[in-house]
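Appendix B. One record, verbatim.
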Amino acid sequence: QVQLVESGGGLVQAGGSLSLSCAASGRTWGRYAMAWFRQAPGKEREFVASISWAGDSTYYADSVKGRFTISRDNAKKMVYLQMNSLKPEDTAVYYCAAESSVVSGQYIYWGQGTQVTVSS
């Protein structure tokens, strides 16, 4: 079992920056690719960014490309999302998730989310 806990959410002005963290714990920590998702009120959950297990490959949604950076520290079992040049439309609950090493695209572990609010 793996538990994921996000932190770092809060209120920030448009144009500002915020850094989110995802801490993993559990007796087993495999070669999981990790990702960040977000969900705004009344909207479906959307993909934000992902990173391979080794951290040598990243992918971003077009809406955040150039502004957000995903990174990880496997020794610390941490995943990060640095968010710069924030916009009001970035307001959402942000979740981190671990991808199955067996089924690509299937995320099997999820955190409870952290709220990010960007004021105009």
